[in-house]
Design brief:
It is a single chain. The protein is of the alpha+beta class. The radius of gyration is 18 Å and the shape is globular. A hairpin with a 6-residue loop joins β4 and β5 (about 110). It has eight helices and seven strands. The protein has helices at about 10-25, 40-50, 80-85, 125-130, 140-145, 160-165, 180-195, 200-210, and strands at about 70-75, 75, 85-90, 100-105, 110, 120, 155-160.
Length: about 210
């Protein structure tokens, strides 16, 4: 999760790659650039491999046990990296704060022009992860989870929608925008499988039902 991408190509190829990246950041788009989750078929396979059990206790949980947002490069922390990635025409100041741009929230279909209207959602919430196995992780492991830019774990969405989600799993909360259901559940299973987190029976049933429609 270093965020450093080595390119051993000719100058022309590197320039072309940078130009392509610029287009991704600035071109208006209806979909955030969260890493693509596994396919529905793979998600169904992964879901069948997850440990099913009663949800664990929240005892001892604190967001401070999942250090975020950490510095990714220069003055840019994880939040600012995701805001840049998920927005269109995003401009940042010298401290890497997003000062202008446009963001489309996949959860509710709203478009925002102020970064303050966006939260960075943890697809699998920190408290949910804690109750699903992360309570036994090291602080370093929890930090990696909370700042994971490689898996489909972080996405910029409308702040009050993220707050309504809270630490709920898919049996308790799903995005109101039905067009995003399949991506959401694929991402949820992808993250839980990668990190070896468990699911409770109601959560698994909700995920199976949603995936069967994908």
């Amino acid at each position: 999760m270093s965020g450093v991408y080595a390119r051993r190509t000719a100058v022309a190829a590197a320039t072309a790659a940078l130009a392509a990246t610029s287009v991704l950041f600035t071109a208006p788009t209806a979909s955030a650039a969260m890493p693509t989750p596994v396919s529905a078929a793979t998600a169904r396979t992964y879901l069948g491999q997850l440990t099913v059990g009663a949800e664990g206790s929240s005892s001892g949980y604190s967001r401070d046990k999942f250090p975020h947002w950490i510095t990714q490069s220069g003055a840019c922390n994880t939040r600012e990296v995701v805001l840049k990635r998920d927005g269109s025409n995003v401009q940042q100041d010298s401290s890497c704060a997003a000062v202008s741009g446009s963001w489309y929230s996949q959860y509710d279909g709203a478009t925002w022009s102020a970064a303050s209207d966006l939260d960075i959602d943890h697809m699998v919430p920190l408290a949910e992860a804690w109750r699903s196995g992360a309570s036994g992780w090291t602080t370093a492991q929890r930090q990696s989870f909370a700042n994971d830019l490689t898996r489909p774990q972080l996405i910029a969405v409308t702040d009050n929608v993220n707050q309504a989600k809270g630490d709920k799993d898919p049996a308790e909360w799903m995005p109101s925008r039905a067009a995003y259901t399949c991506t959401y559940v694929r991402a949820w299973v992808h993250v839980k499988h990668y990190y070896g987190l468990s699911v409770d029976s109601a959560e698994k049933s909700a995920l199976q039902s949603a995936l069967n429609g994908c």
